[in-house]
Amino acid sequence: MIEQGKRFFIFGHRGAAGHAPENTLSSISAAERLGVDGVEVDVQLVQNKLLVFHDDTVDRMTDGTGLLSHFSFEGARSLRIAGGEKIPTLEEVFSTLSPNTVLNIELKGVETASGTAKFVAENLSSRFLVSSFHPEELRKFRSLAPKAAIGVLFEEKFDDGINLARELRAYSMHVSMKQLSREIVSRTHTEGYKLYVYTANEEDEIQYVYNLGADGVFSDYPERVIDILHTLGVN
Ligand code: G3P
Ligand code: MG
Q: Cβ(166)–Cβ(187) under 8 Å?
């Protein structure tokens, strides 16, 4: 289980997406250099292998077109992201991280639970946090990884999120910046979960998340979070 203590936790979003193309090894390295506590990446299944990629289609991020799921693994790996990088595998991302950095694996694509559970089992570590918007992926993941830390991502009904967190014995709730409220912070804490907020990039947003008493934040610009906390004399 992640040991956070009272620290306000800083996740680089998709690595550090404000500094390098999202979900690439250079983005992961940028996040590390900036001093994050954890990095969040999105995973999708391509021919039974886990690739770190956000969108369903490759058009926005690569020199190719079409649905990622229609590519072979080799075909997906032959695509190039701006700057010439390949779409990384989950193993490559994990190898790039320093031993103390938490890796938040977001199960973005369907059928990613089994491969991720296997990956977590093979890389014994207390620094994984597995999250998803898909309840069924999280249920499958929990059945295969009874002790892993789970984060419940929710966009709409908070009560549904809390019910799922209870069912899955989750570690954390991950709420969108737009939905964040004092009530959500207090109910999440009353239920015994950490509350992490995505994605806060502007200073006033980061300040708001901190002031409301959340436990951490996802940001494309983690250095802004670090600066604010430094100014406040915390962490
Ligand atoms: O995991 C937090 C955040 O990444 C969820 O939204 O669309 O950026 O994957 P998205
Ligand atoms: Mg994500």
A: no
